[in-house]
Specification:
Blueprint (H helix, E strand, L loop, with lengths): L13 H7 L36 E3 L6 E2 L2 E2 L16 E2 L1 E3 L15 E6 L18 E2 L5 E4 L2 E6 L4 E7 L3 E7 L3 E9 L11 E10 L2 E8 L6 E9 L5 E6 L21 E4 L2 E9 L4 E9 L3 H11 L5 H16 L2 E5 L2 H14 L4 E2 L6 E3 L5 E3 L6 E2 L1 E2 H4 L3 H8 L1 H17 L8 E3 L2 E2 L8 H10 L7 H12 L7 H7 L10 H21 L3 H10 L7 E2 L4 E2 L27 H4 L7 H7 L3 H13 L18 E2 L2 E2 L19 H14 L15 H11 L1 E2 L7 E4 L4 E7 L5 E7 L7 E7 L2 E2 L4 E3 H5 L2 E8 L6
Parallel strand pairs: 35-39
Antiparallel strand pairs: 1-5, 2-3, 4-7, 6-12, 8-9, 9-10, 10-11, 11-19, 12-18, 13-14, 13-17, 14-15, 15-19, 16-18, 20-34, 21-24, 22-23, 25-26, 26-27, 28-29, 30-31, 32-33, 33-38, 34-35, 36-37, 36-39
């Protein structure tokens, strides 16, 4: 494990921030964007504002998705474009996913260079063969909405900041008559030769260009429009097309297209712009994105950054971060824990991302231009991950924004040719990644918690239509038989269990809206998990179409039929909506508690996850796989046994072991904030085991105090008496001066404001 890297970070002056926002603490000083940038974390350290459309960050290599006609496993660690252990940077791109286990994006790579022009990126071991540059972490720093690095080979200082829709670059050069800025439209994350379907650049004048990039990747019909303004006119420009597959060239041969020609088009374009610069001269760029048009990109630029004041944009973004971080004010035992908490907050507020121009226009799933009326439109819905804790967290600290996200999901449904809510969607595309229909969970959770800034009846209809779509992922069999047969559709146990939970969420939504016919249908479906439980082995087990269980069965295998990103051991605990019923199935509270104990104490041999990208030893405690989401509720299940204190000790153990302040400090993919949201809830002392319920399971807080500053103007205070690393057991809980004789907290307890006091001790309270 590396030493903590405090020296790398830019600490913004508390005086500067507090002069503008006197009521807020300077919390961005506790955010370390480098946490999670190595191994499984897949986060990036670049500049962005909360939920920003532009997420501007360095790229450290150009690993292709394909090698020798097959998937190149080396690409996996570049899901976010940046790896902390790399020693070179190839440029700065404007779109990223945070912590996903698959990827796309990496649009509009920009790289400043000096000296002889090179239009290939070179290699990591020989950076001098291309435009990439070596760098060191001693000359690199990052903070919310700011990134800085010295490009050693080019002797250029690069700085990045953003508004919502515009990235701003500031490059400080040494004296040169051969200064260049390269715009690489070839580069992409999870890239391959045919990923670009077309790219286009139009030179509007000597300091402005517009264009677009169309790609076929995870999103197969994605178009990003852009406008790029330079603070200094370029003296010349040109490009090279690296595509060798274009047979037809038309009659463009009468022009010299490669140099100073104002229209640049092709599949694999790298363009360059030349300058003379004095010693210490700065060239700034504004790069505006739009989902709609180059006109929209220009409007975004003119509206959000009409000037060239880099420091002003940086400060405005940091004030916005400070405002959002101050929704939760916490004190912790150590500074390291406070850093972990606020870095988790930072990661939890990166996605979903804004997807509309300043005039409300966005491209819809139907490829038409729409106008978001009465809500902000969002994309990047990694719902298999984020329904569990991220969206419930947003229901508390960002209720209006979460309602806008649901409005965005409903717009997706209205525009869908399938008439389905999002599964995993981004950039006006449904990529169908993962399983379930967890939009239903997000919607139900909001309605049950009275966050209804959308048409709830229409939302219920959309949930029902999605859950009845027989063509989707084994649903025809699930509806007919009450389970997905493994010989008809893979990952059958995982699908059956997750469908059953989503059906329960729909039932809760229907009951709240007094649609009892729908409630009765879906509450019955919500018990389908029982159909894949095999009492002879006491596990959830793949079942065949003829009603028999599969013969070959290994509860520990993460690659066996029936499961996705998990094994039977962990998935057999996935009945978050009816834990009491699950416990009865598995032999009662005493036996179930012993079963849970062994989850954390047994050893899972390496060969069980050797071929699984999403799981590594770093994310495992015993056989408990915290590095992947299906287990995130498991430690809280002791609350439904006679031994709830075991939840308390396990939670504190997980907080310590799975989250550290280092580049490899996350025990698994952050997955658009889910891993971080788990940390936030668990640090506060409660967790939403079953979103769609108004209850949170009590755990063991690691903070010494916390204030949740609610949008309704009220404050919910959490105080922890006798807090220490050894005092992990709850002795008593007092809510608003009344002893809380239950191991759940109600959502209304939080939103009504008040004070929750935990009394802690070093011995479990067993009565």
């Amino acid at each position: 494990m590396r030493q903590p890297f405090f020296f790398l970070l830019l600490f913004v002056s508390a005086q500067t921030l507090n002069a503008q926002q006197a009521n807020n603490q300077n919390l961005i000083q506790y955010v370390h964007p480098f946490i999670g940038t190595e191994k499984m974390g897949h986060t990036y350290p670049g500049a962005t504002v909360p939920f920003g459309m532009v997420q501007l960050s360095p790229e450290t290599d150009t690993i292709p998705y394909e090698a020798h006609g097959k998937y190149n496993s080396a690409v996996y660690k570049y899901c976010a474009g940046y790896q902390y252990t790399d020693k070179t940077i190839v440029g700065f791109a404007h779109t990223h996913f945070s912590g996903t286990g698959h990827s796309d994006l990496g649009d509009l790579l920009i790289m400043p260079t000096a000296g002889a022009l090179q239009l290939n990126p070179g290699t990591a071991d020989k950076p001098e063969t291309g435009f990439r540059s070596a760098f060191t972490h001693e000359n690199e720093s990052a903070a919310p909405n700011y990134y800085k690095v010295k490009l050693s080979d080019q002797n250029i200082l690069a700085e990045l900041t953003t508004s919502k829709r515009v990235g701003m670059h500031r490059y400080t050069y040494a004296k040169s008559e051969q200064a260049h800025i390269i715009l690489d439209l070839v580069y992409g994350i999870y890239n391959y030769d045919d990923k670009n379907t077309w790219t286009y650049i139009r030179i509007e004048n000597d300091s402005l260009l517009t264009g677009y990039r169309q790609t076929n990747g995870w999103a197969r019909t994605r178009t990003v429009y852009f406008a790029i303004a330079f603070s200094k006119p370029f003296k010349s420009y040109g490009y090279k097309n690296f595509s060798s597959k274009q047979v037809y060239h038309g009659f463009w041969g009468k022009f010299d297209l490669s140099s100073n020609f104002p229209e640049i088009a092709g599949k694999q374009i790298r363009a360059y712009f030349d300058f003379d610069v004095k010693e210490g001269e700065q060239i700034k760029l504004k790069v505006a994105l739009s989902p709609v048009s180059t006109e929209g990109a220009l409007l975004n630029m003119q509206t959000e950054i009409p000037h060239w004041d880099f420091d002003k944009i940086k400060l405005q973004g940091q004030e916005e971060w400070n405002k959002e971080l101050n929704k939760l004010n916490v004190e912790t035992i150590s500074k390291e824990e406070k850093i972990t908490f606020y870095t988790s907050m930072y990661h939890a507020l990166l996605a979903p991302t804004l997807y509309m121009d300043v005039d409300g226009k966005y491209k819809g799933l139907d490829e038409k231009i729409h106008v978001a009326k009465g809500f902000d439109n969002y994309t990047t819905f990694s719902l298999w991950d984020t329904y569990r804790a991220l969206h419930p967290l947003l229901n508390i600290i960002q209720p209006k924004r979460n309602a806008d996200m649901i409005n965005s999901m409903l717009a997706h449904y209205d525009q869908s040719a399938w008439k389905m809510l999002p599964i995993w969607s981004h950039y006006a595309n449904e990529n169908w990644c993962m399983i379930g229909y967890h939009s239903a969970s997000v919607i139900a959770d909001a309605v049950i918690k009275n966050n209804i800034g959308f048409d709830a009846q229409h939302a219920l209809d959309a949930c029902v239509a999605t859950a009845r779509k027989k063509e989707y992922d084994g649903l025809e069999y699930y509806i007919q038989k009450g389970y997905v047969p493994e010989d008809k559709d893979g990952s059958s146990v995982s699908k059956t269990l997750e469908y059953a939970y989503d059906d329960w969420a729909i039932a809760q939504l229907a009951k709240k809206l007094n649609r009892m016919d729908i409630y009765n249908e879906f509450i019955q479906r919500s018990e389908n998990y029982k159909n894949v439980f095999d009492p002879s082995v006491c596990y959830m087990r793949p079942k065949l179409n003829d009603g028999t269980f599969m013969k070959d069965f290994d509860a520990l295998s993460t690659n066996s039929p029936g499961y996705i990103e998990g094994n039977s051991w962990n998935y057999s605990l996935y009945v978050p909506h009816q834990p009491d019923s699950l416990i009865r199935l598995m032999g009662g509270k005493k036996k179930f508690a012993q079963h849970l104990d062994s989850l954390f104490t047994m050893h899972l041999p390496d060969h069980y996850f050797a071929e699984t990208e999403d799981i590594s030893r770093d994310g495992i405690i015993g056989n408990y796989v915290h590095g992947n989401e299906p287990s995130h509720h498991a430690a809280y299940l002791f609350n439904w046994t006679h031994e709830p204190w075991k939840t308390q000790e396990k939670i504190r153990m997980i907080l310590k072991q799975m989250y550290k302040i280092s580049p490899d400090g996350l025990g698994g993919n952050d997955d658009c904030g889910q891993m971080s949201a788990w940390y936030i809830f668990s640090s506060l002392g409660f967790y939403p085991v079953a979103p769609g319920s108004d209850e949170y399971a009590i755990g063991s807080p690691s903070v010494t105090s916390a204030s949740i500053n609610l949008d309704n103007g009220k404050t919910f205070e959490i105080k922890v008496n006798d807090q220490s690393d050894k005092n992990v057991y709850v002795q008593k809980i007092v809510l608003n001066k009344q002893v809380l004789n239950r191991n759940v907290l109600k959502h209304s307890d939080i939103t009504n404001g008040g004070t929750l006091i935990f009394y802690m001790g070093n011995k479990p309270l067993k009565n």
